[in-house]
Structures are given as structure tokens and as C-alpha cells.
Known about the structure:
- This is FBXL4 protein.
- Keywords: Leucine-rich repeat, Ubl conjugation pathway.
- Helix 14 runs parallel beside helix 15.
- The protein is of the alpha/beta class.
- Helix 11 links the parallel strand 17 and strand 18 (482-484).
- The longest helix is centred in the first third of the chain and has 25 residues, at 4-28.
- The chain starts with a helix and ends in a 5-residue tail after the last strand.
- A twelve-stranded parallel β-sheet has the order 12-13-14-15-16-17-18-19-20-21-22-23, covered by helices on one side. Strands 2, 3, 4, 5, 6, 7, 8, 9 and 10 form a nine-stranded antiparallel β-sheet that branches.
- It has three domains: 49-227, Jelly Rolls; 319-463, Leucine-rich repeat, LRR (right-handed beta-alpha superhelix) (Alpha-Beta Horseshoe); 485-619, Ribonuclease Inhibitor (Leucine-rich repeat, LRR (right-handed beta-alpha superhelix), Alpha-Beta Horseshoe), CATH 3.80.10.
- The chain has helices spanning 4-28, 242-259, 261-265, 284-291, 296-302, 307-313, 333-339, 362-372, 389-398, 439-448, 466-476, 493-502, 523-530, 547-556, 573-582, 599-608, and strands at 42-44, 50-53, 56-60, 94-95, 124-145, 150-156, 171-176, 188-190, 201-208, 218-227, 232-234, 321-323, 348-350, 378-380, 404-406, 429-431, 454-456, 482-484, 508-510, 536-538, 562-564, 588-590, 613-615.
Amino acid sequence: MSPVFPMLTVLSMFYYMCLRRRARTATRGEMNSRRAIESNTRALPINVEIVQYAKEVLDFSSHYGSENSMSYTMWNLAGIPNVYPSSGDFTQTAVFRTYGTWWDRCPSARLPFKRTPSTFCSQDYVELAFEEPVYPTAVHILETYHPGAVVRILACSANPYSQNPPAEVRWEILWSEAPAKVNGPQARQFTPCIKQINFPTNLIRLEVNSSLLDYYTELDAVVLHGVKERPVLSLKTSMIDMNDIDEDEDEEKFACGMDTLNKQFSIVTLREWPTNGYFDKLPYELIQLILSHLTVPDLCRLAQTCKLLYQHCCDPLQYIHLSLQPYWARINDTSLEYLQSRCTLIQWLNLSWTGNRGAISVSGFSRFLKVCGSELVRLELSCGHFLNETCLEVITEMCPNLQELNLSSCDKIPPQAFNHIAKVGSLKRLILYRTKVEQTALLSILNFCSELQHLSLGSCVMIEDYDLIASMMGAKCKKLRSLDLWRCKNITESGIAELASGCQLLEELDLGWCPTLQSSTGCFTNLARKLPNLQKLFLTANRSVCDTDIEELAANCTHLRQLDILGTRMVSPASLRKLLESCKDLSLLDVSFCSQIDNRVVLELNANFPNVFIKKSFTQ
């Protein structure tokens, strides 16, 4: 037989497989944004497109603004645009808490979890509800300052306004992409090509990664386009794109890993294999090392290949550090139940963003910790809205070795529940950002948790007297290295004096947007003299910061790396030059809205001190 015939047969089979894949994808209406469907494709039937702005902001992980204000808060994303198409720094926009990599370079930075999939790079999120459920045809994001942070857009099957919640909540990715640098801070309308989904939605989630940005990203509004009836794509012809096949395989791999995650956890019967391949010849430790680089879904898949690898994939040593945050949309009580036997030695656990809308119950979470909590050292529960007092009580009882607890944005936990944390005397890191912790509970925590090194109380609005809190820190928390008092409304020079005298190991202090602190009282010069180890100091929006304060920092805090004096009117270029000459390690200096520091001064300082990122924000 001529050699050409086998080649033709192979090509025919390849072409048939491509057409079959395309037909299947088109039928279920999940065409990817880059699929090569040409202009002769049309949607049937033709629906009238509905255009709507977000009605309500349902949930978010962080924001720059205050809990009692609208300036720079996520709530600004509801409704029509306030700023767009203008560019610049405006208080009427939605702004997340961080940007760039500065937060990864300060003393409070946490070590990352291994095995995080490369496809998951989200740092923050916001969820938006719309009036009418639609099949999305487009999503427009109006970005007004430093765009480019959005990395993923998702749609949810649950209707937040329905009286009958669905038995199963589904999340589908409409668009996803790795972080990319955008040239220039100017406003833009970001309209990525989204894929079609097979259910109507009025709940959209944006996930962002601000690590490549030079400043805070600002979002003004989100516009959802969609139709009431599900579009059905009809193909007259289609062109095959090789990239299309790779994308399909990647999507199916992800879907398989997530949709069957719970099933794979529970597999106990395996096919009979004659041998375990060449893995029998490898040392146990070497196989463990190889498998340590796999993600959780990959471990579950590999466990189905042979008995030897099943044993390795279920070994508790593979689950010493476990982050389930990348799979937040699929983790539920069943997932935790199946993981119990594998997590008996777990030390680091990340359940951030998981369990919301009933996915994880209090009883399911409690059962898991009762089995797996004895060795836990680090527990991440950011935005865990299923948490209540019972959960905190179980944590304190079942995790005697706990050293790090993150409850950031767990704003559903009642105030009295935080009293239980005082039972964990071994705590070294406690993050209570945007929680309802109240003063009595916090005083008890500080009294009994004297090993604390890192404490975040940013945007904790239930605390009545921060001077009393600062006094307790100075008396009990001698090992404190980082303290976040962002938007603390009532701390005065008295509390700062107690804090500086008692916590002289402090390397990081955030006093941004603390309006009751006045430079004229000497509070900032006192800080500079008492805290020589400071590496990060944020005095954001304190208009009283003056040359004397900057000169004291230059004289006493020579290890300073990050300084934010946004908004001050009393700092001159001369004092900044002294600071830059003295603090050789300084890498970030924010002088936005400093009236004496114009663009000419910034250019001059940049030229003389090229290793320092000097930020000057603007408004048009």
C-alpha cells in the first residue's frame, strides 16, 4: 500500500475529531473568546439585548475606603458611572486595598502556599448583582485610573434576589487571563471577549491582581450585556484553529479536575494493573518529592492510575500545606469530608474565599477541624462568611498549636465570638481586618496572646478607644513587629506614646487615615525616636505631617523602606532630600497630593535617587 494512504487516513481522523469537538462545543454554547468562528456564524433566535449596570455590591475582599463612607469603597461600583471617561484619582470610584508588590516586601508579608495552580493569580474580588438574569453577551468594565488589574470574570447560577435558592450553585469563568502590564494610567473601557454559558445570570464576580500596577487601580462601573433567551449558534462553516484544540483540552482538564474533585477524593477501588510500571524501582521518598509539585486535582487524577501511586497520593505527608482557595467555587462539606483522612498531619490550611452561599456548613467545618486541627499552625479563612461563634470556638479548642489566624473580611462573625481567640495563647499572627471585633474581646486577646508579632486591626469600626488598645499592646505585646491601624478613627498622641514605648521591636506601622493624630503634639517625632527598626510607615492622608517629622525619620529610622505621606501640605523638597540621602534602603515614597511636591520636584528626585519609586498621583 502506498505510504500516502495511511497519512490521508490520519489526516481524515484528525479533521473529523476537530469537527466533532467544534460541533460539541457550539451545541453547548461555550465558545471561547479566541475560537475561530468567522463572520458567517450567526446566533438563533435573535434576542433583544439587555444592558444594565450593577444594582448592588454583594461582597468583596478589601477596599481602600472606610466602612462608614463611600469614598474609595467597593460600593461605588453600583449604578451608573460617576467618573468615566475622566482619568485620575477620584474618591467616587472603587479601589482595592493594595497594589504592586510592596505588600510582599514588608515585615508582615506571609509565605505563599506551594501547589497553587499557575492559572490562579487572583488577589482580590468583588461580586455584583444585576436586576435581570441574562445570558451574558458582553461585560464592560469602566476603569478610570491605572487599569489592567482584572484577571478573571465569573458568572454565578444563583439569583441573589430569588426567594428559592438553588440546590447547587455553579460558577463559570467567562474570561480569564494572566496579569499584564498596561501602558499608562488613563481611563479605558475594558471589554474582554467572554465565552457563552448555558444558564442565565445576574451575579458577576470580578477577580483582580494588582501586582504589576504602579498605583491603585480605580473602577467606576460594570455594564452587563445579555439576552433573556439562550443563544443557539449555527455554523455554516468553521475554520479550525490549532490553538482552539489546546484551549479545549485545557478547559476540559480544569473542568474535570474541579467537577470530579469530590468523586476523586472518595475513590477506594482501583482497576487491576499488572504492575506499577517503573515506579516500583524508585525510592519512596523520591516519588513523594515528585508528587509534591502536583496540584490537588492532579493528585486526585494520579491516584486513579495504580495502587502504588494511590498510596502516595493519599499519604498525609502530601497534605502538610494545603491551599483550597484556588478551588473556592467547588469546595463544600463533601470535599472536606473526603479530605479528612489525608489531612491528619496538616499544618498550613487555606480556606479563604470558600464555603459561601451554604457550600460549607458550620457542622462540616467543625467535623473537619476535629479530625485535622491538632497539628494546624496556620489557618487562612479570609472572606469565610459561613463562620460564626461556634466555628471560632471549635478553632480554639481543636487547634492548640495555632500560630497564625487570618479572619480578614469575615464580617459576618458576631462581636462576642472573638472572645474565644484569647484561648489561643500561641498566636503570633492575627488578621482581623474588616471584622466586627469589639473592644472587650480585643483587650482579652492582647492580654493572653503575648506572643503576637503581627496584628492587623485595619477598618475595625467597633473599637471605641484605640488609646486603651494601644496601651494594652505596649504593656503585653512586647514582641510585636507589625501593626495595622488603617482608618483607626480615635487614636491620639497618648496611645502612640504608649505603643512606641512598649513595642520597640516594631518594623511596620500603618497609621493611614487616622485623623485624630496631629504632628503638633509630637507624636510622629516620638515614633521616629522610639522605633529605630521601622521599615514601613504609612501616614496616609495626615495633612499635619511636616518637615520636622521627616527629618526625625531621616535621623533615626535609617532602615526605612516604605513611606506614605500622601496628602500632607507641610513637607518640603529639602526634607525629602535629607530622607532619601539618609535612608539608603528606601524603595517606596508616596507623595501624592503633597502640595509642595510638584511634578518637577518628583522628576528631580527620581533622577538623583533612581532606586526609589516616588509616586505622585493626580486628578484631571
